[in-house]
Write a structure and sequence with these properties.
Layout lengths: L2 H7 L6 H4 L3 H6 L11 H10 L7 H12 L2 H16 L13 H4 L3 H10 L1 H11 L4 H7 L2 H12 L8 H4 L10 E4 L2 E6 L7 E5 L5 E4 L5 E2 L14 E2 L2 E3 L3 E4 L1 E2 L10 E4 L3 E5 L5 E5 L8 H18 L7 E6 L6 H4 L5 H6 L3 E4 L6 H4 L14 H11 L7 E6 L10 H6 L1
Parallel strand pairs: 12-13
Antiparallel strand pairs: 1-2, 2-12, 3-4, 3-11, 4-9, 5-6, 7-8, 8-10, 13-15, 14-15
Helix pairs in contact: 4-5, 6-8
Length: 410
């Protein structure tokens, strides 16, 4: 069966460009007995490892049987899993077929079965790194978090968003673990471009925008292809560092400054090891919860990877948007959390995690939560939305709760 024949049977020939790469290679690798992750015993094991309850068993097993007994669906499921976990290059699945025309309301379960099949690979990968079983079990919860998102998008149905499926590849090959509330990916090359320095006497932290960043009049990042606004410069010599400083509140200041380099020590530069932090859906965001998670991570990674010591936590997210402080009360958990981090601007305005719409439309966006209502009201007033980035230096963990970056800068 070639890819054209398969997609015709799935009523998805128009999506061949997204699906076709690697079809011949995946079909050559298809096990003679079919994909093991579609067998009942493996499904039950994967479901348990990924922290789903037994109430989903009937739906998982029923859909898997439909896939196993249909040659096209069986081959397509294997191709999806092969592209996700085994292909030389990562794939993203937002443009893959929904499969509703062939599986109806069970369409989302097709991708969920592929998603939870990562459990075997993750467990083996963690065992090779001598990761405690409890941390492996926590890390394997991510498909359930994705399923919670799918349920919000599809009136409570079981499944996984295709736009999130590709992320599961990282867990099978990266130093990526859930530790308490957050997940952390140990990356060997800090890549967000912000240069960070600490004063050798008073400990003040100062971040500079990278050279060539394009900003609007308020100091927020524009998309690189946008020719409006103004551009930053950064010059580092043996004697001075001259550039545009970033306010810890998440925007670049309009006037350049020059600081004497001997008085400032490099704290974070492109290429340093960092913990790229991710925030799984659900679980709350109390100070005690997130600070305990970050402290756990600060202890875990040096213990397991002593040759890859991270200098900072970093994250790019809607959750670090400086706009949040304009529309949420200061006592909210979210505002309290971001006020403890050093924020910096990043291009983009990605509202998917707030509204769960693949194509954001303010007219049809849900207004179920106070956050959704507040963001929509903010946009309706004519304001632009900005995503944000943050860093927290490892050596500043003991200052959590003091708003250190802001109090020392103001």
């Amino acid at each position: 069966m070639n890819i054209e024949e398969a997609l015709k049977k799935l009523n998805a020939l128009h999506q061949i460009e997204a699906v076709a790469p690697g079809w011949e290679a995946s079909q050559r690798a298809l096990p003679e007995g079919g994909p093991a992750f579609l067998q009942p015993e493996q499904i039950i094991a994967n479901r348990a490892w990924c922290d789903f309850g037994t109430e989903v068993d009937a739906a998982l097993l029923h859909t898997a049987e439909r896939i196993r007994t249909d040659e096209t669906l069986r081959r397509f499921a294997w191709h999806c899993a092969w592209r996700l976990y085994d292909a030389p290059e990562a794939s993203w699945f937002a443009d893959w077929p929904t499969l509703e025309s062939v599986l109806g309301e069970d369409a989302g379960i097709f991708y969920l079965l592929v998603g939870i099949s990562f459990a075997l690979q993750v467990r083996a990968f963690h065992q090779a790194m001598h990761i405690p079983e409890a941390i492996t079990q926590a890390t394997l919860q991510q498909p359930r978090c994705f399923a919670d998102n799918y349920a919000k998008m599809h009136s409570g149905k079981l499944g996984i968003p295709r736009s999130q499926l590709g992320w599961l590849r990282h867990y099978t090959r990266e130093k990526y673990f859930r530790l308490g509330r957050f997940e952390y990916w140990l990356k060997p090359h800090y890549e967000h471009g912000v240069h960070v320095y600490r004063h050798t006497t008073n400990g003040r932290v100062l971040a500079f925008a990278p050279s060539g960043a394009r900003l609007d009049d308020d100091g927020y990042a524009l998309d690189p292809e946008n020719t409006a606004g103004w551009q930053t410069t950064l010059a580092i010599t043996p004697d001075t560092i001259t550039g545009y400083p970033i306010s810890p509140r998440g925007y670049v200041l309009p006037d350049p400054v020059s600081i004497p380099r001997p008085e400032w020590q490099s704290a974070l530069q492109p290429g340093d090891y960092v913990l790229d932090m991710h925030i799984p859906a659900g679980g709350g965001l109390s100070f005690e919860t997130w600070s305990a998670s970050m402290r756990q991570a600060a202890a875990f990674f040096p213990a397991h990877f002593p040759d890859m010591l991270p200098k900072a936590f970093v994250c790019l997210s809607w959750m670090y948007s400086p706009d949040l402080e304009k529309l949420l009360p200061p006592e909210s958990n979210l505002v309290r959390h971001l006020s403890e981090m050093y924020l910096f601007p990043v291009p983009g305005a990605y509202l998917w995690f707030i509204f769960m719409q693949d194509e954001f439309d303010p007219a049809t966006a849900p207004r179920d939560t106070s956050l959704q209502r507040a963001v929509l009201a903010y946009l309706e007033q004519g304001h632009a939305w900005h995503d944000g980035g943050m860093f927290l230096l490892m050596e500043d963990l003991d200052k959590l709760g003091t708003g250190y970056y802001r109090t020392t800068a103001e």
